[in-house]
Amino acid sequence: MPYKDPQAKREWEQQHRTQRLARRRELRSIETSRKQAYPEAFGTVSFLVPVVAGGALAAYSPELAIGAGGLTLAIAGIYKKGWTWWIVGVLMLALGFFFYWNEQNAEKQP
User: Model confidence over 71-109: pLDDT tens digits?
Assistant: First the structure.
């Protein structure tokens, strides 16, 4: 195998240089055409959709919102997701706790 011997690897790379460059060009053009065909769906609006859904869930059932927010944070941590996942998880968790606290105070008042 060429990768075990540095000299053989160098020779193999020199012999196959044109093929490797052609493949890289092909992959770049595929990526460019994919981005043109499927642009980012909503941009910043796609960030607000889960936040609004989390707010609605928190208003309907605060316990479910707390669970969904915690699960979102766990997934963001385990799979090393981007900062938007963290913000959505924290907002859902905060809204869930807020509505839960609001329900508890409403039950205490006669």
Answer: 889 998 998 888 888 988 898 999 999 999 998 888 887
Element containing residue 40 per DSSP (H, E)? none
Q: Where in 7-81 does DSSP place strands (E)?
A: none
Closest residue by Cα to residue 72 from 56, 88, 95: 88
Cβ distance 88 to 54 under 8 Å?
yes
SS3 80: coil
The DSSP secondary-structure symbol of 44 reads T
Domain ranges in the chain are 6-37, 45-108
Task: Give the predicted TM-score (pTM) of the model.
Answer: 0.57
Half-sphere exposure of 93 (CA within 13 A, CB side): 12
